[in-house]
Structures are given as C-alpha cells and as structure tokens.
Amino acid sequence: MLSGWLANTRDICTAIPGRNVTEKAKKLEKCPDPSPILVGPLRVEFTDPVSLDLVRQENPRLRNGGRYKPDNCLALQKVALIIPFRHREEHLKYWLYYLHPILQRQQLDYGVYVINQYGEDTFNRAKLLNVGYTEALKEYDYDCFVFSDVDLIPMDDRNTYKCFSQPRHLSVSMDKFGFRLPYLQYFGGVSSLSKQQYLKINGFPNNYWGWGGEDDDIYNRLSFRGMTISRPSGAIGKCKMIRHKRDDKNPENPQRFNRIKHTRETMDKDGINSLKYSVVNVEKDQLFTKITVDIGKPGRR
C-alpha cells in the first residue's frame, strides 16, 4: 500500500503546473551560434505595398511592443533595435515586414523601439538614438543595441543583428554606394554596440542637427577609446535602401565638419550624460514600441 501511495503522490506532484514550467525552463540550452535556421541571401523588393495587418498576421509569435524570444533555446543576447523616426510610415512597414522574420531566425531575444521626433523642427538622428537607448533600458535588461535607419534592409540573414567584442558596422555594402564601403571610417546606416561599448564613449553626440556628421563623430569616439570597427564580409553585409527624397526638415548640417574636428574635446560632456528630452506619447503595438519625444530645437540645446 505504501508503494502505491508513493506512486500516486509522485503522479500528483508531477502534475503541478508551476513545477513543470520550472523544470522545462531549466532544460533549455543556449541557442547555437550561428543559428541553424538561417537561409542566407534574401530577395528584397519594395514594389508591392505592405500593410501592418499583414506583418502582424505573418508574425503571430510577437509579443506586445515588438518583443520576441525563442521558446526552444536561451538567446545569447538581449537586443534592443533602435530606429530614429519621423514621417516614414511606409518605410517602417517594409522594415518590419523584412526584419521581424530575420530577427526571429537569428534566435534573438529582442524588442523594436521606434523613436519618433515630435514636431517639425530640424531632425536629430543621434539624439534620438540616445533616447532609444535610455527608454529601452527602462523596460528590459538589454545588453546589446542595434541602431538602424528605417530605410535599410539587410539582404542576408547571416548578417546577425547582435553585438560583438568590438563595435559592429552592419550595413557594409549598400546598393546606394554600389555595394561598396564609401570610405574606411564609415559607420552610418546600421550598427551595433554593447552596453559597455556605448557607455565607454558616453553614448552619441546630441548636437548634430540636420543630415550628416554624427556617424563620423561616433567613429571618432570609438577610435579615441581604443576600439576598432568590426564588419561582416561585403557579401553577407549587403543592404538595400528604400529610395526617397530627403526630408525638408533634415537639411545638410553646415556645422558638421567643424564639430567632427573637435570630438575629442566634446565627447565627455556631450552624450548620454547630457541628454535632455521629454516623452510625449508611448504606443505599444504587436510589431513595435513607438515612443514620441520632444528633444528640443537647434537653438535651445
């Protein structure tokens, strides 16, 4: 009778839901690197329109806020994808359409953050990236940050959107530049930095209003802190750009060349430690977290 009672007790214990979940979690192993479900080169086209409803239907495993993590293994990194944004709704649809399946095949624990600049003043890409870093960390303990323009789509899913031992430039060969690196120090488009790498350079500059210069300033910061840029091969690092006219509120920055010359003097006082902004609105969608922020104006920095 005792043996029968013990057997019944054992059956009851194994039926406790909480214990099953815990035991299952303990059995999860780290995801392999590289992911075994990558497909390689991709066909990327922008001819057919894409709707957010379509992207939602094709990505049913996404959680609210554009969050995902694999359920059959433990992701190697927790990645926040930061997109500086304003008036690019059609571009964002394509980005979400292509990137969500890629990121899931890369077996990342990730979240997508669209940082929308409030108002119609001059655009400030780098400051929005700083905001994205700050706001993402309020939600989750991310250890890697991918900073991506909304109009760039990778053409090979082996170009993993994660962090490496050195800062990573991910958009190596863009169709805009004939699939060649425009110059050796180029760090624009899509890049990734670990939390430690980002903090080591005091984040990004806040005073680059308008187009151009901030990516070269970031390159200088990395160089001055003894870091080097890593890149995938030109074949794997191919990216396709969604063609568009430049925003009237994102004119060329006439001060950019002078500012780049003084990165060494300004980087310790202009960056994440001097960031000021206010959150206007937060929108949670299945595909993304959109944070609208007031970052001020060029005349009041």
Automatic annotation (TrEMBL):
InterPro entries: Galactosyl_T, Galactosyl_T_C, Galactosyl_T_N, Nucleotide-diphossugar_trans. It comes from Albula goreensis. Residues 168-245 form the Galactosyltransferase C-terminal domain. GO terms for molecular function: beta-N-acetylglucosaminylglycopeptide beta-1,4-galactosyltransferase activity; cytoskeletal protein binding; metal ion binding; N-acetyllactosamine synthase activity. It catalyses: N-acetyl-D-glucosamine + UDP-alpha-D-galactose = beta-D-galactosyl-(1->4)-N-acetyl-D-glucosamine + UDP + H(+). One of its GO terms (biological process) is carbohydrate metabolic process. PANTHER family: BETA-1,4-GALACTOSYLTRANSFERASE, BETA-1,4-GALACTOSYLTRANSFERASE 1. Belongs to the glycosyltransferase 7 family. One of its GO terms (cellular component) is Golgi cisterna membrane. It is found in: Golgi apparatus membrane. Residues 31-163 form the Galactosyltransferase N-terminal domain. Pathway: Protein modification; protein glycosylation. It comes from the Eukaryota. It is a single-pass type II membrane protein. Its cofactor is Mn(2+). This is Beta-1,4-galactosyltransferase. Responsible for the synthesis of complex-type N-linked oligosaccharides in many glycoproteins as well as the carbohydrate moieties of glycolipids. Keywords: Disulfide bond, Glycoprotein, Glycosyltransferase, Golgi apparatus, Manganese, Membrane, Metal-binding, Signal-anchor, Transferase, Transmembrane, Transmembrane helix. Its EC number is 2.4.1.-. The lineage of its organism: Eukaryota, Metazoa, Chordata, Craniata, Vertebrata.
